[in-house]
Amino acid sequence: MALLETKGLTAFYGDFQALFGVDVSLSEGETVAVIGANGAGKTTLMRSISGVIAQAPGMVRFEGREIGATAADDIMAAGIAMVPEGRKLFPSLSVEENLLMGCHRRKVNGPWTLQSVYELFPILKERRDRPGTALSGGQQQMVSIGRALMSNPRVLLCDEISLGLAPVVIKDIYAAFPQIRATGASIVVVEQDIGQAMKVADRVYCMMEGRVTLSGAPADLSREEIHDAYFGTAA
Amino acid sequence: MIWIDTILQGILLGGLYALFALGLSLVFGIMRLVNLAHGDLIVFAAYLILVLVTLLGLGPFLAAAIAAPIMFALGFALQRLVLNRVLGTDILPPLLVTFGLSVLLQNALQEGFSADSRRIPAGWLETASVPLGPISLGVMPLMTFASAILVTLALQWLFYRTSLGRAFRATSDDPVTASLMGVKPASVFAKATGIAMIVVTIAALYLGTRANFDPTTGPARLIYAFEAVIIGGLGSLWGTLAGGIIIGVAQTVGAQINPEWQILAGHIAFLVVLLIRPRGLFPRAFD
């Protein structure tokens, strides 16, 4: 049984429909990438799963329970942590306080503590007392990932973590993923950077205009298939 | 020597204004909510203390200690049931609702207690004073000022040293992301208003024991509180304390020059600070 799945997920912003019956699933310990161009509905999918956009109850299931209509804070408490698009650090809080917000509600013993997050991203320990937003973009992204890990989540949702970062910084951040995977976390990464997504993911979903246009293991997908699913050039 | 006395009295009076303002500052700092009923809530709390004192024969301090949790519960419920519904990107609905609450409180208090002015009896404390060389300072004003400092310290500790305070600041920055951390903004806001109502009760204790009050006393307290918050810089607790002191000193100095100038001098000090530092003396780094 899938740890997390959506069935026929739709989403609206007012009258504008952003998702049209999206089915995705994530198994225990799996890393899944969702790729697609701007406006494909990737972030809407993340916001629907994390409860920022309320859905009908049947559309999202986590550990067999319907969570579509559950509030964001309760979904977080159940074990789905989000690294939001744009990092979204709290400007009034120091680096360490930002990290501590991650386990404000969900306090679960597990591999992730302040200490292990600092071991994963040593630079954060040096800057622990600085305001979160005084850091470089890449370091802020590390805080945002560390903050989500602090709750020892069952599922880690990473929304566009490479957006706006230099390639060398993106490489640094993705270098932490094997360690995160090694703790048994199940991960969804949303990416525009197809190459990066292919490297970390066990399975890939490609989205276009609010629909899943392609899915499969990276090794089974040809460049042409991905190109067509991503840009919609196939008839 | 008279000027030293005047300024000292002004600083102590500033403690009272800071107490009026700290609750307002707390609520504004966390949820950007301007509570126009703040002054009336202080007066309401003063009547609550008065009722406990007269009905149960308690001392004013014990009465305030009993009133504080009642006020916390009322503040929590007010935020939960009413104010949370109107919070949003538009600042007008909360202004209208709290203005309505202000009118409602004033009229309900007039209905219940008539328009007569009242005072909370504090016994010998009312006239007690400590000699300090050639000048003497009232015990009540000294206690008011000490309370203002203690409340500021306590709120500062709550904000920067506790996980609730961390949640306050995070929710104030970004409620959506805070909810992704498991915070329920509605309940965080309700706790904040509840805590503000405890500060309101402390302010009410000193308002009611040091001077007469009646059901229409609230709006003027709101103005002083507002001015103190804005002088200090929105959302800064120490700034609010400083703001209260500036208004207090301006008022006593004004009164010393000409008794008619007391209130006016406080408002002028407020305008001068606004002219020189439009964002207040200790503004937050971002907003």
From TrEMBL, chain A:
<dbReference type="InterPro" id="IPR017871">
    <property type="entry name" value="ABC_transporter-like_CS"/>
</dbReference>
<feature type="domain" description="ABC transporter">
    <location>
        <begin position="4"/>
        <end position="234"/>
    </location>
</feature>
<dbReference type="GO" id="GO:0005524">
    <property type="term" value="F:ATP binding"/>
</dbReference>
<dbReference type="InterPro" id="IPR003593">
    <property type="entry name" value="AAA+_ATPase"/>
</dbReference>
<dbReference type="Pfam" id="PF00005">
    <property type="entry name" value="ABC_tran"/>
</dbReference>
<keyword id="KW-0547">Nucleotide-binding</keyword>
<protein>
    <submittedName>
        <fullName>Branched-chain amino acid transport system ATP-binding protein</fullName>
    </submittedName>
</protein>
<keyword id="KW-0029">Amino-acid transport</keyword>
<keyword id="KW-0067">ATP-binding</keyword>
<keyword id="KW-0813">Transport</keyword>
<dbReference type="GO" id="GO:0016887">
    <property type="term" value="F:ATP hydrolysis activity"/>
</dbReference>
<dbReference type="GO" id="GO:0015658">
    <property type="term" value="F:branched-chain amino acid transmembrane transporter activity"/>
</dbReference>
<dbReference type="GO" id="GO:0015807">
    <property type="term" value="P:L-amino acid transport"/>
</dbReference>
<dbReference type="InterPro" id="IPR052156">
    <property type="entry name" value="BCAA_Transport_ATP-bd_LivF"/>
</dbReference>
<dbReference type="InterPro" id="IPR027417">
    <property type="entry name" value="P-loop_NTPase"/>
</dbReference>
<comment type="similarity">
    <text>Belongs to the ABC transporter superfamily.</text>
</comment>
<dbReference type="InterPro" id="IPR003439">
    <property type="entry name" value="ABC_transporter-like_ATP-bd"/>
</dbReference>
UniProtKB/TrEMBL annotation, chain B:
<feature type="transmembrane region" description="Helical">
    <location>
        <begin position="130"/>
        <end position="159"/>
    </location>
</feature>
<feature type="transmembrane region" description="Helical">
    <location>
        <begin position="188"/>
        <end position="207"/>
    </location>
</feature>
<dbReference type="Pfam" id="PF02653">
    <property type="entry name" value="BPD_transp_2"/>
</dbReference>
<keyword id="KW-1003">Cell membrane</keyword>
<keyword id="KW-0472">Membrane</keyword>
<feature type="transmembrane region" description="Helical">
    <location>
        <begin position="91"/>
        <end position="109"/>
    </location>
</feature>
<dbReference type="GO" id="GO:0006865">
    <property type="term" value="P:amino acid transport"/>
</dbReference>
<protein>
    <submittedName>
        <fullName>Branched-chain amino acid transport system permease protein</fullName>
    </submittedName>
</protein>
<keyword id="KW-1133">Transmembrane helix</keyword>
<keyword id="KW-0029">Amino-acid transport</keyword>
<comment type="similarity">
    <text>Belongs to the binding-protein-dependent transport system permease family. LivHM subfamily.</text>
</comment>
<feature type="transmembrane region" description="Helical">
    <location>
        <begin position="6"/>
        <end position="29"/>
    </location>
</feature>
<dbReference type="InterPro" id="IPR001851">
    <property type="entry name" value="ABC_transp_permease"/>
</dbReference>
<dbReference type="InterPro" id="IPR052157">
    <property type="entry name" value="BCAA_transport_permease"/>
</dbReference>
<dbReference type="GO" id="GO:0005886">
    <property type="term" value="C:plasma membrane"/>
</dbReference>
<dbReference type="GO" id="GO:0022857">
    <property type="term" value="F:transmembrane transporter activity"/>
</dbReference>
<feature type="transmembrane region" description="Helical">
    <location>
        <begin position="261"/>
        <end position="277"/>
    </location>
</feature>
<keyword id="KW-0813">Transport</keyword>
<keyword id="KW-0812">Transmembrane</keyword>
<feature type="transmembrane region" description="Helical">
    <location>
        <begin position="41"/>
        <end position="71"/>
    </location>
</feature>
<feature type="transmembrane region" description="Helical">
    <location>
        <begin position="228"/>
        <end position="249"/>
    </location>
</feature>
